[in-house]
Task: structure prediction
Amino acid sequence: MDVPIKSLRLDGENPRLPASLRGGDQAELATVLEMGFEAYAVAQSIADHGYFMSEPMLVIASPVEKDAWIVVEGNRRLTALLGLTNEKIRGQFADSERWDALVGRSRVSSNSLVPVVLHPDRKSTHVEVARAHVIGKLAWRPYAQATYIAARVAEGRTFAEVAELLGVTKSKVADLYRDQAIVKQSQNLGLTTGEIEKAFSLLTVTMSNTKLRDHIGAPLGSRLEPGTDPIPAEKTENLAELITWIFGSEEAEPKITDSRQISQLGNVVASDVGLKALRAGDSLEQAKTKLHAAGLSPLERLLNRLTTAKSALLYAADDLSDHAHDATVRDLVDDIEAALGALSNTIEEIEQTRAEEVD
Result:
């Protein structure tokens, strides 16, 4: 169906939005989306070529306004339309003058009709929204993906069900759920998490590192009970220091400068010598120097561990057929599968982050 632009509302529950801004008024939501998600580029296209009618926005009926529709999918496009048709909202944008220039050549008004697809409720939009923004070409940033997953789990879905919904692996869903739970727990502890939300992929790489997970007591995502804190109470101080080492704080610079140093940080933290050096205020390079002076070789240790694990698994296969139905055996196999998924995710995240840094 077609509805006037003036009847459309930005979604206050949009996963793109920082948690602190969800539920804000329309002008506030539009300002945030305009600043962070390139709505101006969309507005330029609309002003020059008209609205692309073949891609309808997904909407649900507003629970508080008659004949108003909340846009569940298409908020960046709606922000562009509001910037072109609503002077009050446009006036709050950081650079409203460039928007005013677009209005002069745009043919849309608040009464212009645009196509939408009406859904009976938010839940019925999940498959289309998820596939567009988690695995599709319009992918959300990692933190938005993680909060979307958390919302689906909070509705009662299992990790496996969410994975099927999104078309990704269960281990990826579980790990992203765990990582957003770490952010949420950090917020509840009073830690500053703004930098984590902006560079969430750094946290996903960090939590793919077994040594850093062990340092804060974080479980594999598949072992975390939904709704519970991932970090045990006795490890929260370690969590606070790790966040500072990765993301920095008002008082201290981060110990790393890019994702390639995550594994180096893990090697240092796993050593008493290296950990003591970091806590004493040494840089990562200084701590590494002390670690190497102690005669440790992280690469050799990694190769030995991987080779040993490979051999152990090959030998285990010889006895598996006789005990495949044993509950403990099955639990161990599940843990191994999750661990392998975490290793693969680590490589994938590091390669993706490196590619982004090159760009």
Observations:
- The chain has a mean pLDDT of 85.
- The first strand starts at residue 2 and ends at 4.
